[in-house]
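Quick one: examine the sequence and fold tokens given here and explain what the tokens say about the fold. Here goes:
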Amino acid sequence: MDRIEYRNTKDYKKAIDILCDFISEALSGDINGLKNNDITLLIRRVDNGKKQNIYFGDINDPDMYYITRAIYIVVWGYVFNLDFDNLGQWGRIIKHPFRGDTMNSFNSVFGKEMIIAKRYCLSDDLIKIIMEYYHLYHSIGNFIVIPNKLNLNSKRANYCTLQDFFDSFLGAMYQYKHPEESTVYRDFCNELEVVFKENDVLEKFSFDDYVNEFYLKSYIRDEKPYDVFNVPLDIRKKEYIGRNRRSKSFYTNDEYISMTSNYLNEAEKIIKNRADSIVERLNEEIGALNNAGHC
């Protein structure tokens, strides 16, 4: 749907109203406060408990909070014709066509409550940086909307191959869109090919259009995906100590330190760059309605 036409939809107008309330109540009227801040902590700034519950919504996942879904609708609603009803979790009974996703994970690399990181010998400085990333990774610059059929969210995280690296996912998509080329992401594409085909809404995009619509240029070099995190594919296919006892190939301590250092450095830059673009778009959308640029 055309962006201008989409602005007249009921759910877009509802999302704008929710966003404007949130800017006032959680961000002291400055939308830039949305950048690089944990969305959970931002909601908790709201004094009114009932309004907090509204912003959290009925899904206990930062990339699917009600306020997060409102932001998706304002920024990308026209791309997929989003509304509050077609954004939801994947499930065996109720399957929503779209959902939010956290691009550069924390738990997949460091473990919930850092259970993976604690199995390695890390310096105090590196642990401090990891904890700083914990409060960044659930910020708006790290969220994206994805199609939801066949649980694409889980499939792209595949611990046996893609290991939840978002550059690997983009590499798989590039390979899928360019079958005539032979890239290093062929194995990853084979893992996701059935899911890509099922989510036929992706067929409307060229790879370049997808990158542009969702502010993913940080993952692209010379018009193609590349190893953003400087972790060779043979290394990133390894398991973390203690997660899969059947595996015979684990990250060594040195490999894990190198991987996490690179990952943290690049993920931080990507998240902050995307936050700038997303907030700029939100400002443009608000300005299109009230000719002000703020609520």
Notes: The two ends are 25 Å apart (CA to CA).
